[in-house]
Specification:
The chain is mainly α. It has nine helices and no strands. The chain has two domains: about 120 residues, no CATH class; about 80 residues, Hypothetical protein af1432 (Orthogonal Bundle). The radius of gyration is 18 Å and the shape is elongated.
């Protein structure tokens, strides 16, 4: 791989320390989430032959600005995080010519921002983050956020959105239908989509079991 050499391990350690010192928006977006996204990013970076000098710092810093899910600035969160990520990396021995790649990867990771991932590095980070919203960990994170926002688990009438439009501003389970089940179709890498589809099926199985238990 051509380009300037740098101590990527040192950059990663600095990024992790920077993010760990920040207060997360909620328990679903804490340092453990960031570490899982980084782990996903490592795998996808290798499979997609992306540049780890861009993908790994972007993965570490993708949530470095904490904005709660119910904050009206939520759709701006990834842009603010991108600016903060670049500002932090400028304090490190990090090649300035790679900063735009990190900026774009951080900006484009967010579902709510609706920014198209234009580079393979941005596609990798976007998929790596969305993988953590699905499967068993996705269920746990969804319930954590719903609890923090004090939202009921489900609607008393039609809890599984059989005859109504989902409204995840009111009910936690509605978030599965409003967003989470749509994520596999947004995946940008072949490996990411495969994992996303498997994890989404686990979530559907969970809802089927929940429906059975509550008699819905």
């Amino acid at each position: 791989m051509n380009g300037p050499k740098l101590d990527l391990d040192a950059i990663e350690a600095a990024c992790e320390a920077f993010v760990a010192a920040e207060t997360p928006a909620d328990a679903a977006h804490d340092i453990s989430h960031v570490r899982r996204v980084v782990a996903n990013t490592r795998v996808l970076t290798q499979l997609e032959q992306a540049d780890p000098r861009v993908t790994l710092p972007a993965a570490w810093l993708h949530d470095c600005v904490a904005i709660a899910k119910d904050d009206p600035r939520r759709s701006q969160g990834s842009r603010l995080a991108a600016e903060a990520a670049v500002a932090f990396l400028q304090t490190q021995p990090y090649p300035p010519e790679l900063l735009d790649g990190v900026r774009h990867a951080v900006e484009a990771h967010s579902y709510s921002a609706g920014i198209t991932a234009e580079t393979v590095e941005a596609k990798v980070v976007q998929d790596a983050d969305r993988m953590d919203s699905l499967g068993a960990i996705g269920i746990a994170r969804c319930l954590l956020v719903g609890g923090r926002l004090d939202r009921p688990l489900m609607a008393l009438e039609d809890p599984f959105c059989d005859q109504r439009e989902p409204d995840d501003s009111q009910y936690t389970i509605d978030h599965f239908y409003n967003k989470l089940f749509k994520l596999p179709a947004t995946m940008q890498t072949q490996a990411g989509r495969r994992v996303a589809e498997e994890r989404a099926q686990l979530m559907r199985d969970y809802l089927d079991k929940l429906r059975e238990e509550i008699g819905g």
